Amino acid sequence: MKKLLFILLAFLAFANGNAQILDPAKWTTKIEKKSETNYILTFNTVIENDWHLYSQFTPDGGPLPLEIIFKNQKGNFTLVGKAKESKTRTAYNDIFEVNETFFEKKGQIQQKITITNPKLTEIKVDFNYQVCKDVCINIEKSFTFTIPAASKAAEIATIPTNLTTIDSANVDTVVTNTDANKEQVVTPEKVPVLDTKPSKQRGLWSIFFIAFLSGFAALLTPCVFPMIPMTVSFFTKQSKTKAKGIRNAIIYGIAIIFIYVVLGFLVTWIFGADALNALSTNVWFNIIFFVLLVTFAASFLGAFEIMLPNSWANKVDNQADRGGIIGILFMALALAIVSFSCTGPIVGTLLVEAASKGGIAPIVGMFGFSLALALPFMLFAMFPGWLNSLPKSGGWLNTVKVVLGFLELALAFKFLSNADLVLQLHFLEREVFLAIWIAIFGTLAFYLFGKITLPHDSPMTHISVGRLSFGLVVLAFTIYLIPGIWGAPLKLISGFPPPMTYSESPYGVGNSKGSSNATAQILPEGAHLGPHDLIAFEDYEKGLAYAKSVNKPILLDFTGYACVNCRKMEDYVWSDPAILKILQAEVVLISLYVDDKRELPKSEQYVSKETGKEIVSIGNKWSDFQITKFKANAQPYYIILDTEGIMLSDKPESYNSDINAYKGWLREGIDRFEKVK
């Protein structure tokens, strides 16, 4: 009786959640006559915020590119060139290791055609594409353009038909032919969307804090630190009153902030946020920046000095003698020029990193950097007694500069790695990258312990406690990196080295099969080794039969080969020991790939009763299964089922990087199975 009651409650809960079909791209189309036989087909889309619709030019190996199929082309019309796209954005995807190209917010695709059959009355076009945010959706849409034989109107609006990924009762956008030059858009009530949790991305606050720490590091270099007491003493002694000295120092600090923020604004304004973002993923840009960072590192290590022309500093110094606010502004500019050999490499690195985030990130980055640079001048002017507590300038300033040089050198190889990943050259695979970092940070540790000296170092009879402590931290980090060569995940630096799949041995040096014992097991019929060597089924019926035989609940995983967040969940959540233990021992994993292009046998092909779509591939079958049974179309999408295929959890789970929350969701479904079995 309890089991019957539970099944009834689960059914009611499922019935309440049956409107989770997502369709974030709304389409309108039109056909424009250019001559008696030439036409332009235009597809316009409006995309919901934060969603990406992938372009037809996204390379293979990543998210699914847009595929345009002209169904009745043969003998009726020819295509004039490739379909043209409006503005897209390109960004490097470190999960798939490719540059992905996609539309944001809106997009337009145009295709020129030449009609060869004068009796042609309509053109049929299918779109297959993928949209992603926290989840990914594979969508297929059909469009029909009508060409009246009599009038051949200049512009004929059309509507998408056979909307295969939404409820057939809901039409996204209807375009009616009310006028040759107008489109009337009717948008029905929106379908409720699945409540998903946003992925954690580095925001402007993170950029600000990183920039602030970078400014503090620049402050401790030999180009800037000695300027603090000199400049503050100048303001306090030359001003007639203490209040005026404080005011001038504050103006000086604000001027420093103004100069660097203007620099950030100019970078954003000249290049544009989107252009910078695209540039940051460009192969040649990454190679050029690698060379620049190596050059900066060599300068910091003492090979040579990078300086702006002395004439610039002299001209600015002359202007600083004018006094007043203008003179103070030029004093701040003089500081920026004189300290360029130390601040230039840091500012350059920071600008590129901030620019890669797009938007106003370069401005925010320069504000954080300059604020850290300006604060000491303002604070010591307010409290001049603090100057006595400042450590004296000396060899420790050059040590700071050398440490920054090592950090610049390590960061340089990240940019070279980006280029290598995009080109798939396999010159800088994970093991080689980690070996280089181990060498760099190991050498830095020896330097801090005084075993290595560089050109501008002062003679040492001993090392300070602070230097020894920092050396121990660097040595510990170096030792932490070493197991990475043998396959350790190194989560502390996740995102910096190439992924584990981009290596000579994906399971680590000397281990071709990994540490799991799963490879030695006899796999159940229809099963294979999935992520982390988990036993997984790719066929629902076979997985269900196996779950019955072992009396375990099912983790049903709707996924895709080209689903970014599916891979993130597998890499960062499923890999957690607590989660992995559950997946290995307590559930039967069934992973259904909705983008599997393998064709079904003719006897298994059918027309979906839910969407009216022809189901011809394995991916079509599982996508239709998800839509029909669970009223959803997004991936990743996780459901806990009992051995009868009945949902156990209150609601399905989607992308969720919170390991504890995901574990709680799994535990809830498994515990319910144990109670009712």
From TrEMBL:
InterPro entries: Cyt_c_assmbl_TM_dom, DsbDN, Thioredoxin-like_sf. Residues 205-417 form the Cytochrome C biogenesis protein transmembrane domain. One of its GO terms (biological process) is cell redox homeostasis. It is a multi-pass membrane protein. It is found in: Membrane. This is Thiol:disulfide interchange protein DsbD. The chain crosses the membrane at residues 204-228, 249-271, 283-304, 325-347, 359-383, 395-412, 432-449, 470-488. It holds the Pfam family Thioredoxin_7. One of its GO terms (molecular function) is protein-disulfide reductase activity. Its main location: membrane. Keywords: Cytochrome c-type biogenesis, Membrane, Signal, Transmembrane, Transmembrane helix. Residues 1-19 form the signal peptide. One of its GO terms (cellular component) is membrane. Residues 33-144 form the Thiol:disulfide interchange protein DsbD N-terminal domain. PANTHER family: THIOL:DISULFIDE INTERCHANGE PROTEIN DSBD (PTHR32234:SF0).
